Structure formats: C-alpha cells, structure tokens
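FYI - complex with fe (ii) ion, inputs then prediction.
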Amino acid sequence: MAQKLYDRTAEDLGNVVGLEHVNVTIPDQGLASEFYLSGLGLTRDPYMFPGTNNMWVNVGNSQFHLPSRGPQVLRGHVGLVVPSLEELCERLNEVKPQLADTKFDCKRHNRYVEATCPWGNKFRLYEPDIERFGAINLGMPYVEFTVPEGTAEGIARFYRELFYTPAQVKENGEGRAAHVCVGPRQELIFRETDRKLPEYDGHHLQVYVQEFSGPHDELDKRGLVTEESDQYQYRFQDIVCLDTGKCLFTIEHEVRSCTHPLHNRKMVNRNPHQNNRHYRLGADEWDWTLPRSTQRLDPPQPAPEPTTPLARRRAARMAAV
Ligand SMILES: [Fe+2]
C-alpha cells in the first residue's frame, strides 16, 4: 500500500467554491472612492462600469459591487486581508479629512484594524495569515453576519443539506456562530446576538457553486427562489429552518454556476505603494497570492477519510449505480 505522504482532505472543498462579491449600494462615488480606493488601498475594476452609476472594486480575487443609490449597510462586517496594517492605517489617516462629517471611522485593535465606511459598513482588516486565511496577502476570507439567538444550528444545517457544503457551529469569546465553507479558506459566518437587528435593506453577496441545479431544486421545492436571473444564475434570500420553514435570517445570495461567463475572470489589483514621487517601473500590478508550502506530512501518516458533504454524496451515488 502506498505511503500516505499528504493530508489530501486538507484540500477538500464543499459544493460552494468561491465567495466573489458583496454588493452594497452607495450614494456618492467620490466618497466611496476615497474610502475603498485611497483608504483601503483597493483597485477600481478598470473594465466594468467605468461611469458613475456603479463601481466594482477588486480585492484580490473578490470584489465589492457599489451601485449608485441610497446607502445599504450589511448587518455584520466583512473580513479582509491586506498586505500591511501599518500602511493601511497611514492611508486611512490620509483620507480622514475628506471623509469628515460621514460615518467613517478606523480603530487599531491587537490583530486587526476596524474600519467603517462613510455610510456605516464595517470591515475588519488583517495581515496575511496562511494558516487562517490561506496563501493570500489581499482578499476577502469571510463575511460575518449578526443573526438572532438560537439560529446558528439551523443555518449551518441549511447550508449543509441544501448546498452540500461543510458548515458547523463554533463558540468563542464573541459568541456562538455557524461557519459555512464558501471557498478555499473562505467562510460565511453567522454569529448569534441578543441585540435587536436592523431591518434587512436588500444588500447581497455572490457565490459560485459547482453543483448548480441540486441546490436550486431544493430551494425551488420550498418556494425560496426569488429570481431566475439567467441560465447561469439564480437568487434566494431567506435561510430557513428545514423542519418548520421558519425564516432564520435574510441575506440575498446571488448563486452562480462555475460555467458563468464571469467565473475565473482575472481581477486587476494595483500596487497601492506606487505614486508619482517614488515610482517603480514595472511595479504597478499587485500579486495577491503568497507562495504555498508542499504541506508534506512528517512523519507520513494514514490519510483521514474524506468528510465533506459533497464527497459523501458522490460516494453514495457511486454505491447506488
Ligand atoms: Fe451581485
């Protein structure tokens, strides 16, 4: 029998293979540019929506979509990885005067910087951590939502059973939360609170799924599909208890197939250090990836059994043939 040199299960993904964008509408593209581009150091997508009706902002392999309309505020926060917190704080300090008289704020904590956009959206920005966030120096490893008490188990079950993706409830100093795998080292986190939540205002997130039709059928059976967008995309917004049908939390999901025309699109990222006074030729683009180690097991060990819901479904199908 071949020696087990690698933990193959460490590379398993569920059926949701990528969290790509978060969409919040914004009332002022100038202020949004100051915050997302000059402050956070992110990159305006150069190809899509070049005018003032919308702005796509790239962060590694993910994006923010910011159409021009009244402000929407996500009920939680977005976790981002940036190359350096020190440089981030310098940039945020520089945009303070332009963002005076808005909800803009930034605070340095031990392991992250908390930043608030001019309309109240909250971000936690971390430095690269391969163990926690994967081999990236820039990206969107998670979106965390604040949800009502007693809903985390039901939310985890919803994603496990309807989307065939790993989801489990964990507890830490900040409380009890459902952690849902939505890509390589990417999670949706649903953290319980006893505080009253603001009304849902229509913002959304977008994920890519490998098996596209199965989750659609399950959602459709329960009357949960809210939009049949096109051949490659549908939407739903209520996460429900699978026993009672009761809505546990509302957040619109734009669900795309991996055959969607925009899947695997190369995102342009800029080097935020570049400026006209200290310009380096050939250094305009930013590589958001970090080198990955081979992860070879030392000493070699028996590999554990695959445990993802998708792997179990595949095994069950194979057994039924
Ligand atoms: Fe979208």
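The chain has a mean pLDDT of 94. The two ends are 27 Å apart (CA to CA).
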